Amino acid sequence: MNEQFWLVVQYPLKSVKGSQRDHWLRAKVMECLEISLADAGLGYVDGFDMGKCMSDPKKYVLNIFCVVTEEEPSIALVKRVLRDSRLDYTRIKIATMPYGKEETYTLKYAYKKGVTDFSL
Question: What is the mean pLDDT of residues 98-106?
Answer without folding.
Answer: 90
